[in-house]
Every structure is written in C-alpha cells, then in structure tokens.
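[SOLVED] Need 3D model of a two-part complex

Original post:
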Amino acid sequence: MSAPGFPEMTLTQTLLIAALQCIAVTAFVFVLVPLTTFAERKVLGYLQVRLGATRIASGLHGLTGGLNRGMWAMGKVPVLSFLRGLPFPIADVLKLFVKEDIVPDKADRLVFIIAPGLTMVASLAVFAVISFYPGVLFVFPHWVPILGGCPFAGTAADVNVGLLFVTSIASVGVYGIVLGGWASNSKFPLLGGLRSAAQIVSYEVPLTLSLLAPVVMAGSLNLRELARILAGLPLMDASGQLLTQIHPLQSIPLFIGFFIYLTCGFAETNRLPFDMPEAENELVAGFHTEYSAMRFAFFYLAEYTNMIVVSAMASTLFLGGHHLLPFGLQRVIPESWPILGTPNLLFFVGKIVFLLFVFIWVRGTLPRYRYDQIMAVAWKYLLPLSLVNLFLAALIRFAW
Amino acid sequence: MFGGTEYMEINMGPQHPSTHGVLRLKLKLDGETVISCEPVIGYLHRGVEKICENKTFFQGQIWTDRMDYCSAIGNNLGWAEAVEKALGVTVPRRAHYIRTLLAEFNRIASHLVWLGTHAMDIGALTVFLYTFREREEIMDLFEDFCGARLTTTAFRIGGLGQDLPAGFEKAARAFLARFPACIEEYETLLSENRIWKKRTIGVAKLNAEDAIALGVTGPMLRAAGVAYDIRKAFPYAAYAEMDFEIPTRTEADTYARYLVRMAELRQSCRIIAQCLDGLPEGPVMAKLPKSLKSEVVEIYHPTESPKGELGYYLVGEKGGTQPYRFHVRAPGFANLQSLAPMVEGGLVADVIAAVGTLDVVLGEIDR
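Solution:
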C-alpha cells in the first residue's frame, strides 16, 4: 500500500517502513508511560502539598554526585536538581528487572505466566491503528539507503475498521486481569479478578455505545477519517467531491459523548474512582497481589498504556484529533490559516497529555466508589445516557 | 447445579493496608457480602497494665503514652489525674488550664489522623496529606512544650514539669486563626462529595440502643443521638469552666460520625481559645512530699479521649508507691466490639469504611 502521490514501494521498502512505524509507535508508548508515572508522582505531589519524587540525581554522591558537587563548587544550583525525580522511572524499571520473579507454589503456572503478557500486548496492539497524523509525517531524504524517497505515514496501519479493531483488541485485556486473578490461586486476587470481570464487562457496553455516536455521525470506522470529520471539517474524495461533513448541531452529542466515554475510560483502565479490581485499601493489590518483578511491571505498564489508549481515542473522536478545536468546532477556523487551521502532531499529543493529567487530577481528588455502586452507575446512568446520546446523534444526522 | 453454598473465609490483616496497625479480621464472605466478621486482637499486647503495677506512680505515665499513641497527652492526663486522686494532691489552677489546652490540641491531632486515614481508606488520598500538614503544627507545639512529639509524657504528678514556653501562646493562636479555614478545606473535599456520601451514608449503622448495650462511647455514641460526653458528665481538669457544646447527630451512620468529629474539631478550637484567654497566673506545680505514698483507695477516673470514654481504674495499698491494681477501660476495645454487628450483611468495601469510622488504635486495644 502506498500513499497517494508517491511511487509504488518495493516489498523490502514496505516491510522496512512498517517495521519502523511499529518501532516508532512502541517507542512513543514506552517514552510516554514512564513520563506519565513521573508526572503522576509530581502532579499528585503538588496536589497534596508535597514535592513528589526528589531523591535521585540531586545528591552529592553516586553517579551524578561529581556533576552536582562541581556545580555547587562553581556557585550554581546543579542543573539536575531541577529535573530531580525524572530518573525515577528508569530506576523503577531497573529494579523490577532485577527483582526475583516469584510464581506461587499453588498457582496455575502457565496461566499465571501468560496473563500479564496478554494484558500488555492487548493494550499495545491498539496503537497500530491510532492515527497520530493524517497523511504523511515526513519523507525520507534521498541519501538514506533503501528508503530514500519513501513516505513515513502518521498512522501505522491505516485500516478502514480501525475503531472496531480498537474496541475488540482493548477488550481482550480484561482476560489478562481475570486470568491473573484466578491463576494466582489466592483469595484477594480472586476477589479482584471477579470484580474486574464484572466491572470491565459492564462498562464495555456504555463505552462502545458512546463510541457509536461518532460513528453514526461520520459514517466511517477509519480513525484518520473520523478525526477529520469529527473535527467538523468536510471530507473530500480525490476529485474534490464532498463526501461527508457533520452538522454543526452534532457538537452537542459529541460533547455529551466525551464525558460518557471518559467516565467509562476511567473504569476500563481501573483508575480511581473506579479502581475496584485493585482497590488497595480493600483487596491489598487486587488481581496482581501475587505478582512480582517484571510480571507485575507488565500489569503496571498495561494500566498506563491503557490510559494513553483511552486518551488517544478520546482525543481522536471527541477532542478534534489532529486539529486544534474539540467537539467539531474546528470548522470556525479556515483551513488556509497557518498552524491553527492545519492538522498537527503536537495538537494530538498535547490532548493526550492533557487527558493523562486529568486522570491523575481525578485520582488526587475523588474517593472510590463501592463495587455495587459502580455497577449502578454503569447500568442505571451511563447506559441510558449513552443510548439517548446515540439517538440524538442519529436524529441530527438524518433530520438535517 | 451442584447444590450447597460454600463461603469464602478471608483474613483481612494483620498485614493489610487499611486495618490501622495489626487488627486481624476473620471475614466470611458470600461473594462480596460479609456473612460474619470476627475481630482478632492481641498482636500488640505488651501488658501495659501489669507493667504499671510494677512502676512507681511517676514512671507509670510513660506507659500510658504507648497505649493510644495518637492521643498520648489525653492518656497522660487521665493517668495523672487518677494518681492525684489516689494520693490526694491538689493541682494548681494554671496547670489545669494548660493540661486542658494540650489535651484539646491532642484531640484535634487525633481526629486529624482519623480523618486522613478514614478518607484514604475510602480512596480520597489527598485529604490524608492535608490533615497531616496541620497535625505537624500541633506536633511542633508539643515538641515546644515537652520535647517529644508522639510519646509525650507531658505532665507530672501534681501539675506540670514546666510552664508553657515563650512563644507557645503566639504559635497556638496563629494555629487557631488558621485552622477553621483548614477544616473548611477538608469539608470541600468530602462533605458534599457525592461519592463520599454514597460510601458513608447509611453505612455501618449502629443505633443508640445497640451502642449503649455494647458499651460504645465517644463520637460513635454521639452520632447515634446520645449526648454523652465525660467532659460534661463528669468534668475533670478545667472542663467545668469551659463553654462548649456536645455535637450530636441522629443518623448513627458513618457520615454522621464524620460530621460529629468535624464539629468536635471546631469545639476543640473553642475550648483552646478559652484556655488561652482565661489562663490564670500562678504556679504550675503543687507542693508534694518527698516520697509519694498512697492510701488504701479504689479509684475509677473516666476521661473523654478522642475515641470515647478512657477510664483509669486504680487500686492503691497503704503506703504503696506503686498501684496495687491497675486497669484501663480503653474506648477502642469496647468500640471494636460493635464492628461485627455493623458490617454483617454489608459489603467488603463497607468493612473498610467501618474500621475507619471506629477510629481504632491497636496500641490502646491490645495495651
């Protein structure tokens, strides 16, 4: 498959580009996840009138001690003390790598080992279809061997059922949690696994329904097209024929849908106030109580990766994706304007970062729901609300 | 199907993030529903009462610090007054005022620990840090006064070891000026928070009748509508001269206890302000004989600790320098007995809320 306007690529080139795109997306996730954990420490810290992580790389001893001592000697505040805490994620990962990997004696060994990988892979695989930039991000210059002149697209796999792919793959992740809780053969993880099975399955319903409203408006499942249409911009075909554009009134269901989706997203990622499966004050650590070392890290990484997935999906569908304004309001800015009127990778990433901040912010503010209340929220409030929202979107689409 | 139901037995604690120390709960669960709950205590038993029987009246106070370590000064006060009653010592009025003042500061500190941990158990992480910010200031005041922050041993038999240090009154007044805004800050995070209300209203109910039958005292009892407060019922220290109210609610649930304790924070501020305003001049230590010898006495001295009725039972022998028999009626011990009736039939998450609302400190329960 080749982007329009570019010569047909050879098989080698296609494969290489695909591999590079996979690496780029994975790198994006694995850079953003540690930064999110760092941000969580810092943001929660400042919300809670404390400093958060400070104790790495700002001291007078250890690896960076020489630099810090030197800068103090020169009468300057060491440059690292402004970034202190930033190496914490690296230290965390190192620690988790070298820790002993314990598999409980009575655990179902095979399932116990598979479960974290399942959750992790499911959350990572979603990034294949997420559109970071519509069209070509950059073209390899001609001096690059083999790849010279080849385009590097902003979407790893520009498939036309992207949204379907996301919802189906993301829901595989719950298997890891349930199986992990079950295979531990321990009481607290079992309770955690049962809770997450019920919770995530329940929230999948309003979550998917809230995603359906944008689909009804746009008539597409391709995330790149969805982002453009839902930003309020017209979608043209190659000859300049108008294919589809949403009605201005669609901003209302988009606005409501955003909050439904975000609420369900909190539940899907097991974050406060819906962190039932791992409610630390009730179930110790929930489904991953028995996990240690990298297997625990997989669950941990998967949680943060899922946060990024939810943020990316919310930003694609509701917040205007690569465009500046959310909820289909981008139409007020002419496309001829520089920067503001054009799609931008930074807009997309910026929205993800903002939503990640919201995740942390909510964690610092709200208490936790009780298990039965969480179910009530899903079935009694979110489900009817998302149905009404879907109806509203369909009404606007077909009445005007 | 297979017929028959099997319940899951689960041990919550003694190593568990939210059992406040080393409380162990044997829970029998049917899914998420609690069928039975049995608290198992004794993991922190040190034999404080027996130890005190082998210590002189002066030395015993150190052990009272280590009972309810969140309100050491309140414990010290009860011990000092019980011993003074036994020995027939009259304490100067100024010492009474300072003792009252410090005990009320301690009540605030203890309630702040309760609020922080209770909120954290229910998932509101931030409140904990906010309450500890204010508790820190109170701990600094204690450190100013007696050099220790947690295990204070603040008093002497017969009065105080020292008068208030210079600058104490100013710092205390600064705290009083700032604290009401802090209470409001906690309340903005919790009082009208829908999730907080859902988690606490109607949860772990204990009506007045059951509470009295189980010997429950303190905010737990007052939240059930019984205005029983030792500070009013059997005034000690300088409480008879203080003007304050007993906050009560009638709902008898976790939310009502939360409201009662928040109101008590404000009442404590009132008492402290009155102590500071009306602080009489004079000595802080009574004239004592060289060697303290008791008569044949039997004393029960109740005090109002932040958790409830903290009673000191003391038997003295003729010419004895140590208690012949010593027993503590710990409020936490009696209150913990109400846990099972409060949570049975509820959900696992409610157990956490109930343990939080009990305000258990295992140091005092196990002694």
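Edit: Residues 102-138+156-399 of chain A form one domain.
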